[in-house]
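Weekly modeling sync, notes
Attendees: S.R. (lead), two postdocs, one rotation student

Agenda item 3: backlog of single-chain predictions. S.R. asked that every request posted to the team notebook include the full sequence so nobody has to chase files. The rotation student volunteered to paste the first one in as an example of the format we agreed on. Action items at the bottom.

Example entry:
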Amino acid sequence: MTYHPKSEFITVMIERGFMADCTDLQGLDEACLAGVVPAYIGFDATAKSLHVGSLIQIMMLRWLQKTGGKPITLMGGGTTKVGDPSFRAEERPLLTPAQIDDNIAGIRKVFSAYVSYDDTPTGALMINNAEWLDELNYLDFLRDIGRHFSVNRMLSFESVKSRLDREQSLSFLEFNYMILQAYDFLELNRRYGCTLQMGGSDQWGNIVNGIDLTRRVLDHEIYGLTSPLLTTSDGKKMGKSLSGAIWLNGDMLSPYEFWQFWRNTTDADVGRFLKLYTELPVAECDRLGALEGSEINESKIRLANEVTTLLHGADAAVAAEATAREVFEKGGVGDDLPTLVLTTEEIAGGISVVQLIVRAGLAKSGKEAKRLISDNGARIDDAPLTDAGLMLDAAALASPVKLSAGKKRHALITLAG
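Predicted structure, as returned to the notebook:
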């Protein structure tokens, strides 16, 4: 039997494709109707920026606030010291407290583009779980919290089982992660009245643990909701591209490159991505996603503009589209391309085009750059680049030089001053 939701939040989650599983859909739906539901998603601070793979969760928090809920962005200042083992083949590298704080400062910038942090009943909160995890007394924690966990049950969770089935080591440190994440939910409920945890479907076991623990310790009714783990229609994990992670922070990936990532969406994904990553009405998303031939390209531009506007602002989206049209339709250079600025000292005696391709981020190594050239995938000022031994000097770089890898990735090389 199909459940017909009554609350706006659950309706949006189902209609737009955010819903994978919910621990008690009817109960959560009724809670959303009854008043403000505080809900959290946890983000570990393993890098200075989140990437596109986290955007589905950020959009869930945005919709929560837009439909009358209270988003809590939980920074894993404490849990990052342990590392989430979920579906990973090896242990995460451990970071120092200073590195973690630095990463949290970088991540914080993105959230304010999507949710409002204010003192209203639905104003978002940013909380660091180091607030309670750093103060834990080990013996008290074992006695008060550890006794509620069954090792047999923990071993049955898919994230642990998959690691053990492959006979890959799972350290005791990592095994504790799910207990700490469950404890986060308990503390957020106790301190901030949080009644819902959301996350990707790979977090289902951790979320259920938190619900069980909170019910046992506090006897409170709380809920869990997961989103599908997104892959593109060709099976790739969302958030990765040929050039690496698609970061959300503008200082780690330019707004133009971010825009270009969405412009390059495959035809089959356009309608689905419009529903998940923009706020266009569902019917409009379906209409744009059903277009074919050259018309679907305009839908992709609409997708790129909408998503870029949410993160970087309307001006960045307009500039990115203008640059793209200049580069692709008129064969020009465009003002907003990723740019590598060189000093005259750096090119004294000349600099190889292979080195420039690597430094511009169009290839990860000299070997990859040479392969790009030999496979006829590289261009210089829109002309085929066939000589891997080509050297450029100050005279060649007197005006900006455009390097291209394939049809869609470009960079400018220019001299300082």
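Discussion: group reviewed the output briefly. The chain has a mean pLDDT of 87.
Action items: rotation student to repeat for the remaining queue; S.R. to check formatting next week.
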